[in-house]
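Appendix B.2, paired examples.
Example (i):
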Amino acid sequence: MENYIKETPWDRRNFNINTYELTSTTDEALKSSDKHPGHYTLKVDPLESPKKLLRHGFYYVDTLIEPVCTKEKLNLFSNEDTLISKEYNSKDINEIAEEVFTHGRFHRDFNIPSSMADLRYRNWVKDLQANDQICALYYKGGLAGFYAYENDKVLLLGIKKEYQNKGLAKAFTSQGCYTQLKLGHDQLRTSISAANVTSLNLFYALGFRLSHTIDVYHKLNRTALNGV
């Protein structure tokens, strides 16, 4: 397969079709997505004209804002009733993952059933646990959520519904960031949907500032696909 088509097996297991990321917007790359059936992700500069993308069947799904924060600029918020720990019950973490992620780009994709988008998040959280990339968040001794990361990137923040809107997110997230920085990173980065205003405001309060943005397009090439 052409070197600008990258297979994404972590998505294939959820959607039961071939899944790819297209790494170029050249005419040759776009034409290749017409030849190989499956679901495609394409990330482009927002200033790039989408005309040729639309012509090849790609459709817009999201804009990702990618802020960064140096360890010197991280704002720490404390709450004596909160605790971050590597000790947790996997089943409890999985139950939180089933209820809190509803605004991802695959949830916004009209070609992907919501149940499959939910499954993608649940499997991702299980992978993160297996790779020791999750910390549990506790409030007054009860499990309130989790914080997931990879190297210098903040990946996911999941807080149980009964603990949301109680002013805990800043304390939980800043504790997670501080724990992550202690691993030796000079700065942290994350990726947030432009539609997720709550998360944008949260990370801005923590000291994160905009680095750049990316527009995300999807495509479903139904050729030779059965039942999709």
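Example (ii):
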Amino acid sequence: MLKKEDYQHHISATFNTELESLRNQMLSMGGAVEQQLTSAINALLQMDTGEAQAIIDRDAEINQMEMSIDDACATIIARRQPTASDLRLVIAIIKVNTDLERIGDEAAKIAQQTIRMSDDGISPSNFAEVRQIGELVGSMLHRALDAFARLEVEQAVDVVRGDEEVDRQYGSAMRSLATFMLEDSRKIGVILNEMWALRSLERIGDHATNIAEHLVYLVKGADVRHGGLDGLHEHAPKG
């Protein structure tokens, strides 16, 4: 089982510091993205266009974080030529970095839908589906990042299992919203925008799942992205 202290055994203290700094940068970006998601969901539920615009504006900061982490990873690979678990750490951070940036993009899209919906009135669903799915994917993202911080494989497996529930609720929400459109054609515009917001939440669930799978790769050295839950179960701790 890989442990955090495994990244602190190098002869070069500078290399230890570089790896820990890289990991901390990624987790800091994760916290910023998590806050973007929470704010985007709240802005939609409250139809707060001012906060929605602020979320869109802050997306540039997330993009800058992504580029900074990419540069740091490239520098470590070029200068240190890491191998074994060190290389897995750098590769995992590169992949998580991409997923976090895309979650930031999806949060900005939710904010954009909030601004579009502000002129159309409240959805007949009262955003019940947004609230429910938003809470679920928010929890998935938080637990995926926490699992990465603590190198907790079992928690990562639980995150991946949670994506099935997101997909189930997303399908149910689409059917429910389609019924609302059939019942009142005047609400088609606002409901379509709500559907796009829900689509962003569903994608965020996918990215949170990716982060959890990257953690399994980091700790176990096993690529389980296409193995489904059975493949993940094989790499989860026993007991």
